[in-house]
Amino acid sequence: MKNARILLVEDEAPLREMVSYALSTAGFVPQLAENVDAAYKLIDAQLPQLILLDWMLPGLTGIEFAQRLRRDEYTRDLPIIMLTARSDEADKLSGFEAGVDDYISKPFSPRELIARCKAVLRRTGAGEGSETLSVGGLCLEPESHRVSVNGTPLKLGPTEFALLKFFLQHSDRVYSRSQLLDRVWGRSTSVEERTVDVHILRLRKALKPYALDHYVETVRSAGYRFSMPDTK
Ligand code: CA
Q1: Average confidence (pLDDT) over 3-17
Q2: Domain identity same for 10 and 117
Q3: Which CATH number is 166's domain given?
């Protein structure tokens, strides 16, 4: 994750400076573009590991740019974080449909920016996946299949373990039951959607004695979301 190249596409110079400084300080390699043309030049030369994309760019909007990147084989899997103003919140859904990985609302702190970048880099792979995942005293070690809370081992069934691992790698995003089935059980599963609810319930029950069950949120008529308090 260290030395990951992160491309910022942003037309506001002060914001480019702030983000560039924050990224360098965190050990990333920032690449800066003030418009889509400049971004393409950098991308064509070498693929970055992540793009921070301003929603409102002169000419093409960030969403249109994101859609182009998704249509192109070369850039299809490139992780994208959109930088949005509060007024764009209502349009987030169209962004997720365009395949955007995450959002950061302006104004944001360098700390939040770095946390989001790390989270997206972690969950989009970058060749990792064996890294210990932890939040608020909850700690999951993928390789040894161990989960603990403040050092106390937590017993989880295999499905609850897989669910928790997925949630820790994909926090702050809403997943429908069918998406969770695809991602946690696998696309070929014949398991029914309500089975997801059963395992969510079990996971919550296991987390409840530690008052961590509220991390697993039910999003009405949408699905579930794992909210990490320290990235908010
Ligand atoms: Ca802008």
Answers
A1: 93
A2: yes
A3: 1.10.10.10
* Residue 80 and residue 101 in contact, taking contact as beta carbons nearer than 8 Å: yes
Q: How far, in Å, is the centroid of ligand 1 from the Cα of 61?
A: 9
Q: Which domain holds residue 191?
A: 132-231
Report how far ligand 1's centroid is from the alpha carbon of 164 (Å): 36
Look at residue 108 and tell me whether its pLDDT is greater than 80. yes
The pLDDT of 125-141, averaged and rounded, is 74
Helix (H) or strand (E) holding 141: strand 138-141
Burial of 207 (0-12, 13-18, 19+ CB in 10 A): buried
Alpha carbon of 69 to ligand 1 centroid (Å) = 19
Q: What is the 9 CA–ligand 1 centroid distance (Å)?
A: 9
| Range among 143-147, 167-171, 184-188, 228-232 rated most confident | 167-171
Ligand 1 center–CA 81 separation, angstroms = 14
